[in-house]
Amino acid sequence: MQVNKVVVWEAFDAADPMTQAAGQLYEQTLAPEERIPWYWIEKSVASRTKSKPGKADGWTKHLLLAAPEDRADDPTGLAGYVYGALIPNYAGYLCYIGVANWARRLGVGTRLFDQFYRQMSVDAGELGSQLPFVIWESHRPAPGAPAAEWDLWAARTKLFDRAGGMWVEGVDFWSPNFASDDETGDPVPLQLFVKPMAESAGEFDADRLRAVVAGLHREVYHNEPGSDLYDRTLPAGCNPRLVPAKLAGLPVKATK
């Protein structure tokens, strides 16, 4: 499929039809247990013009949209979105990314990743600091899941690889289940991916990675040592390492 140049821009109006189209794509591309309510994202879009890096809750949040240049005002032409934030004194946190089915294999995902990295670097610079890394989570299929789910997962991890992400092997990051209104559902194990920025990949040894994972629990989920999700994520003997993201796409065998 041939399309015109893909453009990426930031959403500033929660009522804009393109932002609304992003909400629909968000719900189509993410399982309920993985996603926060869309209206939370709408609130951050609505407040974006009033916020500056380091203000409000400390996070600088962005919803970036992508579409072919000639369809940037056409909700059916929305090719993808990415949502995330700079967390001061920690890193860039890419919360969610999604690409429309018709736009796959057109470089949309890589374009969104690249633009998000740039935005995080700009935000960090406005605070007078460097951006050490960008981190994100993704849900791996359960062992024994249908082959189609593993094929989709493999494609996703190859995108992460092309975008410069590396897999934090050796960690299952346990997060709340957002499908439950009070988050009391079974917790969701996620895989973590890191894009080194100001810090080189070689600096992420096991100690540094444990600190990165602990920081994600602390800054995003407000979990500390002693809490169930934190301790399940970082048990004694946890020895994470950075490896190419595509290796995370290999199927995991079910255990008896």
Summarize the entry for a quick read.
This protein is α+β, with helices and mostly antiparallel strands.
What topology does this entry show?
Blueprint: E1 6-10, H1 17-29, H2 38-47, E2 60-68, E3 80-87, E4 91-99, H3 108-126, E5 133-138, H4 147-162, E6 166-169, E7 173-175, E8 188-196, H5 206-221, H6 228-233, E9 241-244
Parallel strand pairs: 4-5
Antiparallel strand pairs: 1-2, 2-3, 3-4, 5-8, 6-8, 6-9, 7-8
Written account of the structure:
Strands 1, 2, 3, 4, 5, 6, 7, 8 and 9 form a 9-stranded mixed beta sheet that branches. The chain contains 6 helices and 9 strands, in the order E-H-H-E-E-E-H-E-H-E-E-E-H-H-E. It has 2 domains: 1-112, Aminopeptidase (3-Layer(aba) Sandwich), CATH 3.40.630; 132-256, no CATH class. It is globular and about 55 Å long. It has helices spanning 17-29, 38-47, 108-126, 147-162, 206-221, 228-233; strands at residues 6-10, 60-68, 80-87, 91-99, 133-138, 166-169, 173-175, 188-196, 241-244. Strand 4 (91-99), helix 3 (108-126) and strand 5 (133-138) form a beta-alpha-beta unit. The protein has 256 residues and is an alpha+beta fold.
Observed structural traits:
256 residues; 22% strand; alpha+beta; 9 strands; Aminopeptidase
Q: How many helices in DSSP terms?
A: 6
Could you spell the SSE succession in H and E letters? EHHEEEHEHEEEHHE
Helical content band: 25-40%
Low-confidence stretches: none
Number of domains: 2
Please compute the radius of gyration using only Cα atoms.
Answer: 18 Å
Task: Provide mean pLDDT, rounded.
Answer: 92
Structural class: alpha+beta
Strand content: 15-25%
Span between termini: 44 Å
Q: Looking at the structure, what is the overall shape? A: globular
Largest sheet data: 9 strands, mixed
| β-strand number | 9
